[in-house]
Amino acid sequence: MLRLGPFAARCLPAGPLCLAGSPGSFARSWLLAGDRGPLSLQVRAAAGGERVPVLKTPKGTRDHAPAQAALRDRLLSAVVSCFKRHGAAAIDTPVLELRETLVGKYGEGTKLIYELQDQGGELLALRYDLTVPFARYLAMNKVNNMKRYHVAKVYRRDNPATSRGRYREFYQCDFDIAGQFDPMIPDAECLKIVHEILSDLQLGDFVIKVNDRRILNGVFAVCGVPESKFIPACSTVDKLDKMPWEEVRSEMVGEKGLSPEAADRIGEYVQLHGGLDLIERLLQDPKLSQNKLAKEGLGDMKLLFEYLTLFGITGKISFDLSLARGLDYYTGVIFEAVLLQQENEHVEEPVSVGSVAGGGRYDGLVGMFDPKGRKVPCVGVSIGIERIFSILEQRLEASGEKLRTTETQVLVATPQKHLLAARLKLISELWDAGIKAEMLYKKDPKLLKQLQYCEDTGIPLAAIVGEQELADGVVKLRDVATRKEVDIPREKLIDEIRRRLEP
User: Comparing 130 with 32, which gets the higher pLDDT?
Assistant: First the structure.
């Protein structure tokens, strides 16, 4: 799950966005507010004014051209195929949720929720993530056991950084396991899924950081932090991947109200990272070993590493006490995958260039929605698809590789005039046989133009039917790449095309 920075309040009008009333009244309200905005220009142009309309997408959003859409489809397909390989079923939920469903679940992220109001009087908001709607779904439908995936857009009133794949409207790809199971088995599978996806996509070197909220809370407790300040302290620790410890410490003391002594003691712990050896060391720590929560968390972390060793992926796993993840609903194991970049050969340790996945255990979230407080333990992961897409897009652009935007397998072509009927009949036969086929929308296109279209769009085969082919009962099948042509009896054409298209 990509973490996002604070929202600049000046970017939007104060208060919830009200969509009630007629379209005309909505437009007038904006014109009254000021006549220099992009929307004002568009409305005036539509009303016959002299101003030219401003054609742009809203801040933090984007269009996707065919090549970009094709790349996104490939990426989503790779992620979803992994989810399906692990036995997950798909669900979908509304893009709108009741505002009360979302508020209070995201810590400091709550201020980034897009709030709006519909004509029925319900206070609504655009979904901020896919996890809270999933918990609401489980509680509402009284589901106790489920392994699901969900791919959909979410919305955040964030200050976007589009070059790094950070938007206000973006896709999330979530995999979650809900139900009462033995400790750490589902958690280990979620980490295995992250490892599989990042390895399959070949994005470069990466590390998956893991921690446990119980360990963090135990650290805060033994360092003298009052329980009421655990969550604020946690959100500050969460900034350690972006800020040096000195700045984090300063925020803890100056803004969160922690004592300098407590902050210094926290610093001794949260800058540690390692593997099983560090877990063992902390289990022997004279202070942490006396804290019930920390001891539970460290015991589960040791068990998790044992399962990850069996999966053969511990080489990419780092137990990192600085990992906090700022969302309020996490209760146990938390994790985050980051891509690494070796700056140069003189740097001993690779540096992080961005989070591409995150998740954790949230055992209490469903109970917050259930009328009887019935709890359903859950653990899940969200793949940061926009960040990954941004990386793949830049890589594709740098390589100069041309990506196919369609899946057309055959172009039906004619070499002479007055053969439109022959083309229409043949392409209909191909469509009926399930073959992806196209033809040019001209009565008498030139053959060279038709073949050039094949080369430009990557269509592998051309089925050419001319006067001689009609007389002989054959179709000339051309391999566009090699330019080799062979006459195929009409009745055998479908089988021949299928044979050539086999992987």
Answer: 130
Question: Is 173 exposed, middle or buried, given 0-12, 13-18 or 19+ CB atoms closer than 10 A?
Answer: buried
Type of residue found at 147 = K
Quick one: which of 153, 198, 171 has its CA closest to 356? 198
Rounded to an integer, what distance in angstroms lies between the CA atom of residue 5 and that of residue 374? 34
pLDDT digits (tens, 9 = 90+) for 292-323: 999 999 999 999 999 999 999 999 999 999 99
What's the angle, vertex CA 311, arms to CA 309 and CA 315, rounded to 5?
55
Q: What is the mean pLDDT of the chain?
A: 87
- Asked if residue 358 lies in contact with residue 241, where contact means CB atoms within 8 angstroms, the answer is no
CA–CA separation, 49 and 296 (whole Å): 69
Cβ–Cβ < 8 Å for 385, 353? no
Q: Other CB atoms closer than 10 Å to residue 472's CB: what's the count?
A: 13
Instruction: Tally DSSP H helices, then E strands, for the chain.
Output: 18, 18
Q: Where are the beta strands (DSSP E) in 85-145?
A: 89-90, 96-98, 115-117, 123-126
Q: If you compute the radius of gyration of the chain from its CA atoms, what whole number of angstroms results?
A: 29
Alpha-carbon gap, residue 451 to 456, rounded angstroms: 9
Q: Residues 6 or more apart from 151 whose CB is under 8 A from it?
A: 76, 79, 80, 90, 171, 172, 173, 174
Task: Name the more confident of 239 and 486.
Answer: 486
Q: Which DSSP category does 271 fall into?
A: T
Q: Extract the tokens encoding 106.
A: 């995201």
d(CA 388, CA 189): 21
CB 332 within 8 A of CB 296: no
Question: Residue 391 forms beta bridges with which residues?
Answer: none
Q: How many residues are there in the chain?
A: 503
Tell me the pairing of strands 146-155 and 89-90. Answer: parallel
CA distance 476 to 473: 10
User: 412 exposed, middle or buried (CB, 10 Å; 0-12, 13-18, 19+)?
Assistant: buried
The rounded distance, in Å, linking the Cα atoms of 176 and 197 is 15
Residues 144, 130: Cα–Cα separation, whole Å:
18
